[in-house]
Write a structure and sequence with these properties.
five-stranded antiparallel beta sheet; 10 strands; 16% strand; 505 residues
């Protein structure tokens, strides 16, 4: 199935997802940190403004101002009016120094706002008291500064409040505040700028990563395409520029070359094996024990069967001419009850009717070159083997006979010749001498026959040595005559030998 996205597309999508997530996370973190920093900066600024106003208030505090104007016994409203007239200039100047800023004084004795600048915006609040839960009362009670955000006199604000301490007493508090809407607007602008800068920087980084990764991704695509080509053709090679990926490509090319050589060597070995199996003078048939289909059959069996279209057919059809599995099928002995192969060799003798010969068959499971476990059946012609065995037995018997003939007959004949020679030397009577000479001549003739038989054995063994030796023809003929004469006389036959005068002595 073709891939929907290439590796380059996948990497780009991963980079986009990574950069998008990084962009969002970075923007959120920068925004959060920036907001915290801005709020901290706002708080510090407002507290600083409040301390500046505290420094503008005379050391004697509100009472010192009232004494200066002889209003210590004036009504509450007159005191508030005098304090507002004296302090309003400072609060207006500071309040008008930045948009959205509000500052003022609160008197604890008068429980009223003395001034709230800029007056043009907040002057109407002068003389009013803060609510009972206003954080300013907590400042006066605890004499500690507080920065609080929430809805107060002028609305939703960030309010920094510090106690006014004179003569060891807290006589009121000073505040400096700013509308949270203004702060939110500033944070919004900052957030937009942050996200814009982050987006631009992320996009730039993303483009740079794509440009830098393009070469690597192209090399990776070449490696992927090359490995697919090598899978189909081991002679193919991967072309990649130098570097880490180039080294990987070189390693893959090296492995492909090694595998190719191994495959060629295996194919050559298979070809040699098939050539040997095809030319061996025996039946070789390999079949699948599960399907009974013939996988390989050698030329010897094809010639004996007179067919060449046997591969792919069932073994029982090819070997025995049956239409269904044989009852004597050896497959059941080559597997155990659980169907696992058994490492055993079966030897049996059968008569094959299709080729009309007795076969000595060996059955064994073998692992074929493609990894399958197959049944190999090897059969040799037992008829030829029996004929060979008979011939070998005859030769053995002949050799045994000749050996016994040589060792059991030659010594007695030698003894006879020795005894007759001794008797002739003892001056026997003429009649005895004649008999002894006949015995001697016959023994010598028989010994020559024995030598001839042994020469025949040597001829068969290619060990015969032909000797050239002079002899007396007339004496040889006379010796034969003397050996045959007694048997001729016993049968009342006339036996004469005539030697031509031209024959030399």
């Amino acid at each position: 199935m073709k891939r929907l996205f290439s590796l380059q597309h996948q990497v780009i999508l991963v980079l986009m997802a990574f950069m998008g997530l990084s962009f969002l996370l970075t923007g959120y973190l920068v925004r959060d940190i920036s907001q915290s920093m801005i709020l901290r900066e706002k708080q510090e600024k407002l507290l600083t403004i409040a301390h500046i106003l505290d420094a503008r208030l005379p050391p004697e505090g509100f009472d010192g101002i009232l004494l200066r104007y002889h209003a210590e016994n004036a009504t509450r409203e007159d005191k508030i009016r005098i304090l507002n007239r004296v302090l309003r200039q400072d609060t207006d100047n500071i309040g008008e120094s930045a948009p959205g800023l509000g500052v003022g004084f609160y008197s604890r004795d008068l429980d009223a706002i003395v001034t709230y600048g800029p007056s043009i915006s907040f002057g109407s609040t002068v003389g009013t008291s803060v609510a009972a839960d206003h954080p300013g009362r907590q400042v006066m009670e605890t004499s500690t500064q507080i920065v609080k955000s929430g809805s107060m006199v002028r609305g939703d604000i960030l309010n920094a409040m510090i106690p006014i301490q004179r003569g060891g007493k807290t006589i009121g508090y000073i505040w400096a505040n700013e509308l949270t809407t203004d702060i939110s607007a500033q944070l919004g602008n900052m957030t937009r700028n942050i996200f814009l800068v982050t987006l631009l920087s992320s996009s730039l980084i993303f483009i740079l990563l794509i440009l830098l990764a393009r070469r690597t991704l192209n090399d990776i695509d070449r490696i992927i395409t090359g490995t697919r080509n090598i899978r189909n053709d081991l002679s193919q090679r991967i072309e990649v520029r130098k570097g880490d990926l180039g080294e990987i490509a070189d390693n893959i090319n090296g492995m492909a070359e090694s595998v190719g050589k191994a495959v060629d060597k295996a194919n050559n070995a298979i070809a040699v094996l098939q050539n040997v199996m095809s030319n061996v003078d025996a039946m070789i048939c390999v079949c699948d024990p599960q399907t009974k289909k013939v996988v390989y059959i050698n030329d010897w069996l094809c010639r004996r069967l007179g067919r060449n279209d046997l591969e792919g057919k069932t073994c029982y059809e090819v070997l025995h001419g049956h239409t269904e599995p044989c009852s004597f099928c050896p497959h059941k002995y080559l597997f155990d009850e659980d169907g696992h192969p058994v490492d055993e060799i079966l030897n049996r003798t059968i008569h094959n009717q299709l080729i009309n010969c007795n076969l000595m068959v060996t059955d064994k499971l073998v692992k074929w070159y493609d990894g399958r476990v197959l049944h190999m059946e090897i059969g040799t012609d037992a008829t030829e083997r029996n004929a060979k065995a008979i011939s070998e037995a005859v030769n053995q018997a002949q050799q045994s006979f000749l050996a016994r003939f040589n060792h059991e007959i030659r010594p007695p004949m030698d003894n006879i010749l020795g005894v007759t020679h001794t008797a002739l030397e003892a001056f026997p009577s003429p009649e005895q001498a004649a008999y002894l000479q006949k015995i001697q001549s016959s023994a010598r003739g028989l010994l020559e026959v024995i030598n001839d038989i042994m020469d025949y054995q040597r001829i068969e063994a290619n060990e015969i040595i032909i000797e050239k030796q002079a002899f007396n023809v007339r004496k040889a003929i006379e010796s034969v005559k003397k050996a045959i004469m007694p048997r001729a006389e016993a049968k009342y036959l006339e036996f004469q030998v005539t030697v031509d005068n031209s024959i030399p002595e």
